[in-house]
Amino acid sequence: MGRLIEELDYRETPMGPLILRRRWVAAIDADVVEVILGEEHLMSSLFTVGEIELAVRGLAAAKGGSLRVLVGGLGLGYTARAALADPRVTSVDVVDALAPVIEWHKAGLVPLGESLGQQPRCHLKLGDFFGWFDRPRAAAERYDVVLLDIDHSPRALLNPEHARFYAVEGLQRMRDGIAGGGVFAMWSDEGPDPDFIAVLEAVFVNIRAEVVAFDNPLTDGASTCTIYICDRG
Length: 233
Description:
This protein is of the alpha/beta class. The chain contains six helices and eleven strands. The strands form two sheets. Strands 7-6-5-8-9-11-10 form a seven-stranded mixed beta sheet. Strands 1-2-3-4 form a four-stranded antiparallel beta sheet, with no helix packed on it. Helix 1 (49-60) runs parallel beside helix 2. The radius of gyration is 17 Å and the shape is globular. The termini are far apart.
């Protein structure tokens, strides 16, 4: 065992201090890599099931081949890697608002190393996902699958400005950027939210809120997250 906590990088950002760190966890007798933004614990390599299932379940709902995928939120890269594992996927655009996160991947500081940056089907883009669809997109620019993992839930937001996206108008703008027959899927750290489901039903069809359970060695039990899956129609 090395140091209990090793800071791999520290950056000041408009959203607060951003830290990439490696921490030894006694419950598993191993190191994990974590992303911290201000007081928010964004992601840990200890818990990746939800991020992976977001891609697996979202893509399972998609029909056809030659799929163009948009991932909102890069994090440690597990959602993007899972999307790339689907042979039908021809391209994955990953949008993240924090430049250091993209730099960590290109420098190989994350557990996945440089794999995403070296993958020709994967394009890491600096930008604001929540404004990504403000400009109408031509048919050739539309995505077949949109996967979102940024905020903790539709209510627990990293930035209050994100709230506009989770309303009917914001979701409609995104829907217009999804190809016919396409899919929107979103991760949430909370259980199914009936009020948010009602908003989704005003925009999409065939809404599913799937609860995903996974082992939690910190509690010696199970934890859950929710994957919302919606068809564009």
